[in-house]
Amino acid sequence: MTAKLRSTLLAPTLAIAFSALLCALALLASGANPADALGVMIGHVGKGQVAVDIVNSTAIYMLAALAAAIGFQMNLLNIGIEGQYRIGALVAAIVGSALVLPPVLHWLVILVVASLAGALWALLPAILKVTRGVHEVLSTIMMNAIAFGLAAYLIRRDMFGILVGNNVSTEPIPDSGRVPGIDLGDRGTVFGLVFLAVVVAAVYGIVMKRTRFGFELKASGESPTAAAAGGVNAKKMVVVSLLVSGAVAGLVGMPEILGRDHAYTLNFAAGYGFAGIGIALLGRNHPVGIAFGSLLWAFLEKSKVALDNVGVPREIATIMQGSIVLSVVVAYEIVKRMDLAAEQRRVGRALGTAKPAEQVGGDGK
Amino acid sequence: MRFKRGVAVTAIALTSVLSVVGCAKDSASSNNSSGGQNGAAGCQTVDKPPAASGQASTSEVATDVDASSLKVGLAFDIGGRGDASFNDSAAAGLDEAIAQLGVKKENTKELTATDQESEDSKQTRLRQLAREGHNPVISVGFAYSEATKVIAGEFPNTQFAVVDGFVEGAPENVTFLGFAEHEGSFLVGVIAALESESCTIGFVGGVNVPLIQKFQAGFEQGVKAVAPDATVNSRYITEAGDLTGFTDAPKGQVTAKGLIDQGADVVYHAAGASGKGVFAAAHEAGIKAIGVDSDQYNQPTVAEYKDVIISSMLKRVDVAVFDYIAAVAAGDLANLPQVFDLKVNGIGYSTSGDMLSDETVDWVEAYKQQIINGEITVSDTPTTS
Fold first, then answer.
1. Please, are residues A255 and A193 in contact by the beta-carbon 8 Å criterion?
2. What are phi and psi of A266, to 5 degrees?
3. A309-320 as b/e: b if 16+ CB within 10 A
4. CATH fold label, B72-179+318-340
5. What is the pLDDT of residues A280-312, one digit of tens each?
6. Nearest-CA residue of chain B relative to A302?
7. Chain A partners of B142 at a C-beta cutoff of 8 Å?
8. Chain B contact probe: residue of A160, A308, A314, A315 with most B CBs at under 10 A
């Protein structure tokens, strides 16, 4: 168990250390002091509402990463989270502003609508995949482009948009549809829907580990033929996992819309979907890994403002985000091979027939 | 698609026939046609409006104030200083305040938004500036409206301004610096109509949002005011929600090329840093272009294409920023214009490079006076969107 824990922790630690080194070099090259920059990034957390902002963003990234992870479990690359969450948020904002319902029911309905809209946006790629064999990467990327166009159309002033100064917004969601947060005074307000992300992560963890569905999902991902031989309906699993992934993606915009903005505006943040894919890789599709990955991502994202404030190029944080994802993939592969080699040596020693360890190939085959 | 193209081709053919006919009649009767310097094709124009009379009332904010004690914070939209357009214009206003009002450079701070950032990053940026004692804090771009409203509530003793911004229910210490972009766009529309020979004119918008639609609306109205038969084709680089339309020069070039292929020989852009691509396309095709926001003929970032930039619609963000800083220093915000328009020289057009004939300038000045006098009302929403 400790060996297993060590090998799961080793890879991300290596990756973070490596990318920190890379950033330090980039900083040195640009003439800034890496230690100072790190100090500013960490000191920033204690200021103003930054700590609360990080928690809020962590929840948003978690939802996006969980959506990606559900697909990854089945070897499905749902690149369409970006479009799914945009459509989910916009449709939910439009429906939510039009409904008159009692408080808790109102926002539950909005959440369900967001999920359904997100799932619906994943339906076409799922159908294309199982009936025509269209690769989901292609179809979901195209659905992203369509989502952007549709969102721009729906928010026009002759559709559902209203003009606020130079901005366009949907009608505001009434009080009953707003999810109350935890008000920490000067420290800011933690979105109520932070707990939604925790619940989704927990449900995801339990389903993957403890249910037949989760087993079938992972089995289909690891070996489709073996899963099929075992009686798993591969097509059904593709459709279900893409739809569930889309449904979770539909929720990504909800913490901000129901907790702060109360409407979909032109300022609606983009990019959470793509960040989620990176974080799912970083967290190895494990709910706890995803939670920590999201926290790290949110920390780096918020530190950009602080770096800009002291005149350090804020692109450093972006470089770090990118290099972490890249190096984590490499690091996992290296650790996997090291483990395999270690296992081979151990078995070899136990059987007493092995050649000396150093002659066993490093590639572990 | 096919049908549409057919219609477009027919329309272009018809307009060119019309304009040739019009020109023939024109040159026979009087010589009030475009700029007077070329007898070739051109739009059939209406009668030249009477010459400008009266002066623009320049409600000058006092510039003899001492702002040396001010700490000025500036929060840019994406692009920041160096975008050759909107943000640069705001930066120029600050530079002017440093030069003329005695603001100390070390007492100023400029921060820039990142692409795709969330609302809380904007709030954090403004909060940082306010907490470090910057007063006033000026943010550039309507995206800051909501964040400024929140942060101004937290710092009631700090003055905040939002260029282009507006939001309901903002506290008293927030000033919104709005512009009448449609009025200036009308004037460059007049220029385009007079300078065009094919009588087909193009507009490239960065992102299809209400703010940029104001430029389109004024421009189209200006062209039609001079040449009712002219064709104005308007295209946007990206749709609302995708801000890359303001920062993607290659896309700007492709969009402009599309308009040029449809026959446009004057192209006006309101596309921020993407405008560089528009100029590149105009340069390649050997046609004329009109810049936006800053006096782009004199801008180093687009200097290689300056020979095609016949004019620029000036959105004097620099004037607004400068006036605002002066007003804060004088403690007199009430005298700031509600809207920076033609009347207060918050909006205008440039003649750098001397590529406009005196005749053209006469036309533009005449229309300018009519707008200032209220004889022409410029619409801020396009008739065809």
1. yes
2. -65, -20
3. beebbbebbebb
4. Rossmann fold (3.40.50)
5. 988 889 999 999 999 999 999 999 999 888 888
6. B121
7. 165-167
8. A308
Q: Cβ of B241 and A155 within 8 Å?
A: yes
Query: How many other CB atoms sit within 10 Å of the CB of residue B310?
Result: 24
pLDDT digits (tens, 9 = 90+) for A228-280: 888 888 889 999 999 999 999 999 999 999 999 999 998 888 899 999 999 99
Say what the pLDDT of residue B57 is: 52
Contact B119 A302 (CB under 8 A): no
Question: In this complex, do B120 and A56 lie within 8 Å of one another by their Cβ atoms?
Answer: yes
Find out if CATH 1.10.357.10 is the number for domain B181-315+354-385: no
The shortest CB-CB distance from B164 to any of A158, A166, A301 is to A166
User: Regarding predicted confidence, which is higher, A20 or A243?
Assistant: A243
Average pLDDT of every residue of chain A: 89
Min Cα separation B162/chain A (Å):
11
Residue of A148, A302, A308 with shortest CB distance to B241: A148
CA distance A189 to chain B (A): 11
In a domain, A337, yes or no: no
* pTM for this entry: 0.84
Count the domains in chain A. 1
Say if A145 is an interface residue toward chain B (CB within 8 Å). Answer: no
Burial of residue A341 (CB within 10 Å: 0-12, 13-18, 19+) is middle
CB within 8 Å: B166 and A165: yes
Look up residue A76 and give its two tokens: 């499905």
What residue ranges of chain B have pLDDT lower than 50? Answer: 1, 15, 17-40, 385
Domain span holding position A113: 53-275
A128 min Cα distance to partner chain B (Å): 26
Residue A69 located in a structural domain: yes
Lowest mean pLDDT among A6-15, A139-148, B69-78: A6-15
Name which of B263, B260, B199, B221 is nearest B21 in CA terms: B199
What is the tens place of the pLDDT at every residue in B271-324?
Answer: 988 999 999 999 999 999 999 988 889 888 888 999 999 999 999 999 999 999
Q: Max CA-CA distance within chain B?
A: 70
For testing contact with chain B, the best of A305, A310, A321 (most B CBs within 10 A): A305
Q: Which of B105, B108, B110, B124 to mutate to test the interface with A (most CBs of A within 10 A)?
A: B124
Start-end ranges of CATH 3.40.50.2300 in chain B?
72-179+318-340, 181-315+354-385
Looking at residue A325, its amino acid is: V
| Residue of A144, A256, A267, A300 to mutate when probing chain B, most B C-beta within 10 A | A267
Rg (CA), chain A: 23
CB-CB contact of A88 with A250 (8 Å): yes
Cβ-nearest to A152 among B109, B143, B240: B240
* 3-class DSSP state of B264: coil
Q: Is A122 in contact with A242 (CB distance < 8 Å)?
A: yes
Tokens, residue B316? 């004097």
Q: Which SS3 state, helix, strand or coil, does residue A7 take?
A: helix
Handedness of CA A252, A258, A264, A265 (dihedral sign): negative
A268–B127 C-beta distance less than 8 A: no
